[in-house]
Structures are given as C-alpha cells and as structure tokens.
Amino acid sequence: MITKFFTKVVVKFNPFGKEAKTARLFLSSIPPTQRVGGTSIQNVILSGNSTEKPVVKVFFKDKSEMEIDPSTVTFKEIGNFFDRHSRKLHLKESIESQ
C-alpha cells in the first residue's frame, strides 16, 4: 500500500467486531517512520453498544479525503481503494518533477 501521500488517518472500530482485523492490519501497514514524521494517526475504539459506524478515513496531501467501512471489505480491498488515489498523486508528482 502506498502511504507516502497520507497526511492524516482516522480509524474507528470495535475491537470485538468483524471490522477489527481489517482496521488493525491497515494501521499496522503504515510505516513507523511515517508515523513519526508526517502522518497524524487518530484511532478511536468503539464500544459494543456504540451508535457510531466503523470507518477508515484518509486525508491526502492534495487536501482530498476518502473513507471506507472496514466491516464490508477485506484488507486487500482497502489497500486497493486508497492506492488508486495514491497512484494518481505519484503520477502527478513524477510529471511535475521533470
């Protein structure tokens, strides 16, 4: 997963729900150097009787944001979802640097 263009990550999940595995894998895929350097990571643990929906929301360097429900997708699908926009930003960056 291309995490280079993430500026902020918000993850909300119930640790005992079916979305927990996907949310935890997503959080663990962000490199430690990026966590310290430039990406703000906010995770919220939801209780079993919470009315909030589980969500993974990513803010990118171009000020756009994308969100997805981790209980309806797998980790691979979540990676592909965010990689589509990251690839666009990578292409734009490589064109501008020439």
Automatic annotation (TrEMBL):
Source organism, top-level taxon: Eukaryota
Signal peptide boundaries: none
GO molecular function, one term: structural constituent of ribosome
GO cellular component terms given for this protein: mitochondrial large ribosomal subunit
Subcellular location: Mitochondrion
Keywords, ordered alphabetically: Mitochondrion, Ribonucleoprotein, Ribosomal protein
Main location: mitochondrion
Family of the protein in this entry: Belongs to the mitochondrion-specific ribosomal protein mL53 family.
Official protein name in the record: Large ribosomal subunit protein mL53
Species of origin: Lachancea fermentati
